[in-house]
Amino acid sequence: MCRPTAPRRGYDYRALIMKLSYQLVEQSWPLAKEFRISRGAKTQANVLLLALSDGEHVAWGESVPYARYGETLTSVSQQIERIMPLLSSQTSGEQLNQMMPAGAARNLVDCALWDLRAKKANASVATLLGLTPASTVITAQTLSIDTKERMAAEARTIGNAQLIKIKLDEHDIIEKMEQIHLAAPQSQFIIDANEAWSFETLIQVLPALAKLNVALIEQPLPSNNDTDLATLSSPIPICADESCHVSADLAKLKGKYQAINIKLDKAGGLTEAVKLMQAATEQGFIIMTGCMVGTSLAMAPAYLLSGASSFVDLDGPLLIAKDRDNGFTFADGQMQPHSSAFWGGENNQTNVELARLFTS
């Protein structure tokens, strides 16, 4: 169960502006266990929830402010508070992109507005955008950094998973992957270094990793120090994560990366994520759809990109102790869609949790 935090003083969460009322809520979702990457560890997912109403329809979205990009719950909330007086239910995604920079704040507003548009039009967001999401997808299941013994044991518990994402720092890379591969020999692996490796480390480990069912390596080098990738002929595709936020980034990635990881909190919403996906596909990049650690509400808009994605990494709800009601379901890595009333559906039903925000 999430623990909503108290609203900060001075914020009017029920402000009525241009026929849009809204509530902005901080929530803390305990994780099933500690989640550790090369930059640190967390035991809970701190998210922002935005609920909108035009007086007839109620819509919502979720975003995850990320410290790596200089974001906090406070800074993102302040961005949203500043923009809300300028918005209406008629604000388009492209207009929003001109009004706000990419990031978690714009993502939150954009996704809530898309949900509102779907309810007003009685048509799904997928239909409005001309997207065809997969009916079910294989999502990566993530192992956070630990000892090689514990990581192998964790891999063994999800041994039927077709795709496992491995968080690694610069220590014991091959030793850990050998043990994980033994524990789940039929699985494919995505390695995510979160900028923790040097170019020399990457060159050293590539030959061994290529023999261990590693299908993709995410952001091995720091985003501000990745020029050496242009000289690399890698047997494993290299995927840009921290180096890729919006479609304008693609020009600098060409020749260095073969894949990109699209995350809505980086792109600043579904509108820009679709633009990025289409441009990257045209330019020959492999598409991966990823996420921050959040609930099914944060995954729902990203799921719409699944039909065009070679890799899907939307296991955020699996990392949380208890997800929102009516969200995605998972079985052996198979991700089943959420209910149409949850987010972005083609009917005007309102999710019970969402309705409560405007009736409590």
From TrEMBL:
Ranges where the Mandelate racemase/muconate lactonizing enzyme C-terminal domain occurs: 148-239
Cofactor(s), by name: Mg(2+)
EC number: 5.1.1.-
Transmembrane segments: none
InterPro entries the record matches: DgoD-like, Dipeptide_epimerase, Enolase-like_C_sf, Enolase-like_N, Enolase_C-like, Mandel_Rmase/mucon_lact_enz_CS, Mandelate_racemase_C, Mandelate_racemase_N_dom
Binding site for Mg(2+): 192, 218, 241
Active site per the UniProt annotation: 167 (proton acceptor), 263 (proton acceptor)
Alphabetized GO MF terms: metal ion binding; racemase and epimerase activity, acting on amino acids and derivatives
GO biological-process terms attached to the record: amino acid catabolic process
Pfam family, one: MR_MLE_N
Classification via PROSITE patterns: MR_MLE_2 (PS00909)
CDD domains per the UniProt record, alphabetical: L-Ala-DL-Glu_epimerase
Name of the top EC class for this enzyme: isomerase
Keywords tagged on the record: Isomerase, Magnesium, Metal-binding
Gene3D superfamilies: Enolase-like C-terminal domain, Enolase-like, N-terminal domain
Cofactor note: Binds 1 Mg(2+) ion per subunit.
Similarity remark: Belongs to the mandelate racemase/muconate lactonizing enzyme family.
PANTHER family from the UniProt entry: D-GALACTONATE DEHYDRATASE-RELATED (PTHR48080), ENOLASE SUPERFAMILY MEMBER DDB_G0284701 (PTHR48080:SF3)
NCBIfam families (UniProt xref): racemase_DgcA
Protein name: Dipeptide epimerase
